[in-house]
Structure formats: structure tokens, C-alpha cells
Design a protein that fits this description.
Blueprint lengths: L1 H36 L2 E5 L4 H12 L5 E4 L6 H12 L6 E4 L2 E4 L1 H10 L1 H6 L4 E4 L5 E4 L2
Parallel strand pairs: 1-2
Antiparallel strand pairs: 1-3, 3-4, 5-6
Length: 140
């Protein structure tokens, strides 16, 4: 009798591990498909100030990103787990351009300020001079 209970327990554990594994691969597939299907992707949470900051960079550049608001999805937690496995970070936002991982909010702002973001997007960013002749990025 004890052997039957042990075998049944092992089968239940194995089945649950398979279910978790298939759920994980499904979420990872969603992340990869989303990244490859859109020029600009931001994995975000609607209430996050860092996410709003990253999104505002693209607004400034007059670019419309595809935004996945993880907190507004039933599977958002699982998607964030899959994203964490892919990029090595669990934080949001996570920004991708042309399939390339840019990073989070600070990385996105830094890429914007250095001109790297405009180059990756294939757009021109005009520069204007302040009264002290410092160059700052400007998007018309």
C-alpha cells in the first residue's frame, strides 16, 4: 500500500512539473514572439514611474512602442518570470528595439541622451544649442 502511495505521489509531482514547464515555455514563446514581431517593445507595469519614464522617451522621439502592461494581464507574473530568464533581470521596464535588449529605464534614457537610441531606430534627432552652447537632444 505504501508503495502505491509513493508511486502516486511521484506521478503527481512529475505531472505538476511538466505543467509548470509547459507554462514557462508558453510564456517564453510569447515574450520571444512579441519581441520579434515589433520594432519597439516595452514590458511594463502601468503604475511604475520608471516604466512611464522609458515610455516618455519614445513619445519624445515620436515613436510608438508596443507595450505589454504586465499588471493588466492574468499571465503577467508568468511573463515576467519568462522575461527574467531571458534578460537576467526581473525589474521593469524591459525595453527591446529591433529584437535587441536595451535594458531598463536608466539604460533607455542613457541610450536616448547618447544618440544610440535614435541610431538603433534609424531616425534623425535634431540638436539645439542652449544659451551655454551645450548640445542636448531634441525631437521635433
Amino acid at each position: 500500500m505504501a508503495v502505491k502511495i509513493l508511486i502516486a505521489s511521484i506521478l503527481v509531482i512529475a505531472a505538476s512539473l511538466c505543467w509548470v514547464s509547459s507554462a514557462d515555455s508558453s510564456e517564453a514563446a510569447f515574450v520571444k514572439k512579441t519581441i520579434s514581431a515589433h520594432k519597439i517593445v516595452i514590458f511594463s507595469k502601468s503604475y511604475c514611474p520608471y516604466c512611464r519614464k522609458a515610455k516618455s522617451v519614445f513619445k519624445e522621439l515620436k515613436q510608438v512602442p508596443f507595450v505589454v502592461e504586465l499588471d493588466e494581464r492574468d499571465d503577467g507574473w508568468n511573463i515576467q518570470d519568462a522575461l527574467s530568464e531571458i534578460v537576467g533581470r526581473r525589474t521593469v521596464p524591459q525595453v527591446f528595439i529591433n529584437g535587441k535588449h536595451i535594458g531598463g529605464s536608466d539604460d533607455t534614457v542613457e541610450a536616448y541622451q547618447s544618440g544610440k537610441l535614435a541610431k538603433l531606430l534609424g531616425i534623425e534627432v535634431l540638436l539645439y544649442f542652449t544659451s551655454t552652447l551645450n548640445c542636448e537632444p531634441y525631437a521635433p
